[in-house]
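My main concern about presentation is that the manuscript never shows what a single data entry looks like. For the editor and my fellow referees, an illustration may be useful. For illustration, here is how one protein appears when written out as sequence plus structure tokens:

***
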Amino acid sequence: MATIKVKQVRSRIKCPKDQKRTLDALGLRKMNQIVEHEANPAILGMVEKVKHLVSVVK
């Protein structure tokens, strides 16, 4: 499968707890941090849930 790079572009402050847990599950702890994941349905679903906080980098 292809890989995607996910970058956190907005702060997690004042976000609901489930969105904070989703960012933790993706491995994003700080602003502007980039992590690389396989593009499977589970990861894509997590990215969709916090799409207002992250961006997908090519």
